[in-house]
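Example 3.2
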Amino acid sequence: MNYVNFLLNDVVSSFLRWIATTSFMATVMAILILFIRQLLKNHLPVKWQYLMWFLLMIRMVIPWAPESHFSLYNAFTFHAEQHPEALFIDMKQKSVVPATNVGDEVPSSDSSKFSSIVQDDMDKSPATVLPWKKIALILGWLIGAITLICYLVRVNRKFSREMKKYASIVSDPVLVGVLEQCKSELTVRRKVPLIMKNGVDGPALYGVIHPKILLPAGIEDLHPNELRFIFLHELVHYKRKDILANWLMTCLLVIQWFNPILWYAYRKMREDQELSCDAATISRLSENEIKEYGYTIIKLLKKSSSKAARLLTSTNFSTGKSQLMRRITMITYFKKESSKWSAAGLALLVLLVAVSLTNAKNARADDFSSALATELDVMEKNNAPLLAKLDSKLRIQVKKTIRQVMRDLGQALPLESIEAVPNEHQWLLKFTGDGTGFANLWVDDQTGEMEVVKFGLDLSPDQVDPSLVDQANQSLKEAGFNGNSKFKIHRNIELDPTLNFPYEVQTKFEDGESEVLFSNGHLTRLFIPLSPDEVTENQNQFAKQALSVIRKGAGDQLIKAHHLISGKKKYLILEYMDGSHVYFDSETNEISQIGVPRLSNHMPSSMKPEQLSQTAAPIASKLFNVDLNEYSLTFNKKAPGTGTFSKPGELYINFSYNNLGNIYLITRTNVNFSKS
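Structure, written as tokens:
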């Protein structure tokens, strides 16, 4: 299950994001090429028009491109993907795990804004909620891609079988002699067999590895000069590897099967391919022969009656009547390419590369990165005296580790002290922070790799990636807040294997009671204040009835309300004067967290499993309509006062209880709080 979740949440997400981004960029580029092609079709030589399509093929496959101020994608804004499924719990409690030291108080519901998003991460839970939208998207894409592949394979295999069964090698000395003459003209040294078959629509070059010239039966009736035109045309295709280009483009279209603009672009690419081949062929002919070449095309088109199948491994001399007018026009007005047009074509390709094979560049991001890099360099020099106590090899890796953490933090903090932690085989590096959070880093004393990270820091907007600031503003605007917000920004970095906290960089933007949270660069929470008057009586009564299941009389006067938006889900958070709170889906009323005051500051001893099961079972039945007898119960020894009920494929149900054995907090989520 862990591996499946990893594939769904990491591999599949990245793949879908790559397809969507690549499809958008390729579409923009295809439209630009079509515009240039239409604008300059009577001026720019067809060779250069055809070469533009190769740049589109590159754009369709490259996962990364250098950033440039000249990129046409600067005209578009891309926002980070919002996580589609997320559940929330109290951020300061870190999954509501009570403190491990006696006397430490677990923050109550009124000590923070409650809700932090727990992303669907397979490392955190085997019972992660499956992202059904991603599953539907990837299945839809797979069905389309597999259907197209099956169609192409069927058509090409059918043609290959017909070739083996009905085609015959041409031994006519006239045909073979003309072909050898053409090969000599074009300096083609490899053997290119002539194959003849009934029912073929027209002459074609067939095959990728061992290309052959395929001829329709009866073509031997043509004049030797007409045969020469045909063979020269197909040998030009052979020399330019046009079959391979068609094969590669079709493979890329299998990935982008859903994009009609790219299919249209492919059709125009094939048209330009034939025109370019015509131009290369007639450049070798005399003026009188050029007209005969055009007549030969018309003559073959009159004989064709069927639409050619979509073959990956062929190019055709006669491509259809729809292109006839453009081909004849090009042939009629053909002029040998001048150096002026060669220079113009080359300049156009260079310009197209500059604007379309580069990604958008953010000037503010450049300033941010440059300023931080300068800070990091200064920090490294200032830290050198303290780091000198480490072994030289270890020191190199520790410097890299510090630099990585500080880069993620957004500010280069000065190193305050280095202490050995022999029991844990670690070095503890303490930094000077701003007092709003920890500033400690533990590294392995042998490798220098980070083992535990705990940092918290307030930042100014110019210390944060500008794209995050833009996304925070945009998110609030979409939620109904107009104008740029004056954010208070706080960043947390945490890594703690003992508590199963993976390396995570959280950036929180606060504007009054509004809050936007990013985790590892992805928008995971939008927290918006709501007037208690906007809460319906039904919603208020539902929350109070749910609270009464835990403790009679809980939930008196409603004092605060918030909306928590995660992806397309909207949760309602209600807080009451007595310290009770409920988080639930505003559409389905599904409860994610519910809590009442703890009533005791003393740390509890662990309840016996049967005691907790007996106490929790009726509560879980009423709140979640589940039977805890079907769940297994585990305790976290490092976090007394909590128990977790789990069932394969279902969300975890985490209970927190006080020293009297009374349950005061329940969280239903994809995180196992008992996991140590």
